[in-house]
Write a structure and sequence with these properties.
With 467 residues, this protein is of the alpha/beta class. Helix content is 24%, strand content 34%. It folds into 2 domains: 20-414, no CATH class; 415-467, no CATH class.
Length: 467
């Protein structure tokens, strides 16, 4: 029986910051010298440095997005693009991790979760992985679960074959920035026919003021294989901007199934400008399950490219916008294979003047015969000065496609609260029950322990609204 209990997680656990004297050793600002020094510190092959330098050039050329939330407060000169908190890197035992860093992850219950419910764990602190391990039962079946920097050295041909092939460095300004200064992250390779029955997790933690984190996650799921990967993130609040611009590339091969769950809970100081994309082949299935809360500005649109026949993608997401937050999230699906299906469900909560936006693209190509697409966007507002918007863009070039889109927005009415009160349920408890029911479709897809964690994080964010 699993006993990981996230219900006692507190704001102090998430907002706690360690000593950051180490950050003084690392300058802020971006330059070619910095990019070269990052590559040298990792003993990377020349092709990696070439990609970094091309990306830096492209970053300097590309403009900021002209749509979505304002990024004017993001000062690139103030961001620290690379920092190491400890000389101990990529330990295989928690006993070998720097004690102060280990205590931070213990607060977040990562080692406990690894022991009881996970097949493996990666833990990144600032710019480097401090811990990475996979259980022997899976490594003996050929599963590779390494931090990304190690994978570049140990499996260069495999990494080079896939790296930047799903998300090109020219994709947008923050993709270019990512490839220029990328550090840390996860490499996961699941061989043909292997079904990993326990989730794997990576947890990314920023600690220092004005820190940037640019981890790269590369996942390859071979034919008929199955895996569930969980990503967690957090950072303390300082009142000065931080930047997260990670990148996720997923390759789901013929008949494989991949579930990617994330609970992104950066602080309100953080600009969360992440890029996630999957290529889905014949008879394969990709699931994106996301909870986005915490960060001051989020621009995140997990994408699925259904290139194979009978491919499927499910996108389930929660966005919570509290005071001072702008959550601009959604999904992108491009369908070129035949007989493909996609289901997109977005749930948003807005409170205290927060802004939540669903921004999505569905692109059905001419070759995509008999595509079936359903998009559902639901918003719940807690006051008169919060905002919820839905901005779908649907393009269809094949008249055999079946596409439906529905959207709703509303508030918790006095009549509903009165109904609960008439049955002995007070207002705060009633609001909590309504929110839980509203989000249930997404939360129920997570393992029990992580559904509990997400519910607890939402409860803390909705304090004084849901009890």
């Amino acid at each position: 029986m699993c006993s990981v209990d996230f219900t006692d997680l507190t704001k102090q656990d998430l907002d706690h910051s360690d000593n950051q004297d180490y950050a003084k050793k690392f300058d802020t600002g971006l330059s070619e010298d910095l990019v070269q020094s990052i590559s040298e510190s990792k003993n990377e092959p020349s092709w990696m440095l070439d990609i970094r330098l091309q990306a830096l050039k492209k970053f300097n050329e590309l403009p900021l997005p002209s749509w979505g939330p304002s990024l004017k407060k993001l000062d690139f000169k103030k961001i620290r693009y690379f920092a190491l908190a400890s000389d101990k890197k990529n330990s295989k035992s928690w006993n070998d991790v720097d004690p102060e860093i280990k205590r931070t992850f213990e607060r977040l219950k990562i080692p406990q979760a690894e022991r009881e419910i996970l097949a493996g764990v990666g833990a990144q602190y600032e710019s480097e992985n401090v811990y990475h391990s996979v259980k022997d039962v899976w490594s003996k079946q050929g599963v590779i679960f390494e931090d990304f920097d190690t994978a570049v050295i140990k499996y260069p041909e495999l990494v080079q074959k896939y790296f930047s092939k799903c998300v090109p460095l020219t994709d947008h300004k923050f993709a270019a920035l990512h490839y220029a200064v990328t550090s840390g992250g996860t490499f996961l390779y699941v061989p043909k026919g292997v079904e990993i029955t326990q989730p794997l997790q990576a947890y990314f933690r920023m600690n220092a003021m004005n820190q940037g984190q640019f981890e790269h996650t590369l996942i390859i799921v071979e034919e008929e294989a199955q895996v569930h990967y969980i990503e967690g993130c957090s950072a303390p609040r300082y009142g000065s901007e931080s930047l997260h611009a990670g990148c996720v590339e997923v390759f789901v091969n013929k008949g494989a199934q991949m579930r990617y769950s994330s609970v992104e809970n950066w602080s309100k100081d953080t600009f969360n400008l992440n890029t996630k994309r999957a290529i889905v082949n014949d008879n394969a299935k990709m699931e994106w399950i996301g909870g986005n809360l915490g960060s001051g500005v989020t621009m995140l649109y997990p994408s699925s490219l259904l290139v194979g026949d009978n491919a499927r993608a499910d996108h389930l997401g929660i966005a919570l916008a509290n005071e001072g937050q702008n959550q601009d999230v959604g999904s992108k699906v491009m369908i070129s294979g035949k007989n493909c299906r996609t289901n997109i469900v977005s749930k948003s909560l807005s409170k205290g003047g927060g802004i939540s936006t669903y921004r999505g693209i569905v692109d059905v190509k001419k070759s995509a015969e008999n595509a079936v697409v359903h998009v559902e966007c639901d918003a719940l507002l807690f006051d008169d000065h919060s905002t919820a918007d839905t901005i779908p863009h649907i393009k269809c070039e094949n008249d055999t496609a079946q596409i439906t889109h529905e959207a709703s927005a509303g508030k918790i009415s006095d009549e509903v609260l009165l109904y609960f009160e008439s049955r002995g349920i007070d207002e705060e408890a009633a609001r909590g029950m309504i929110v839980n029911g509203f989000l249930n479709e997404v939360v129920k897809t997570l393992p029990l322990e992580y559904a509990s964690e997400l519910n607890r994080l939402i409860e803390m964010e909705m304090e004084n609204s849901i009890g």
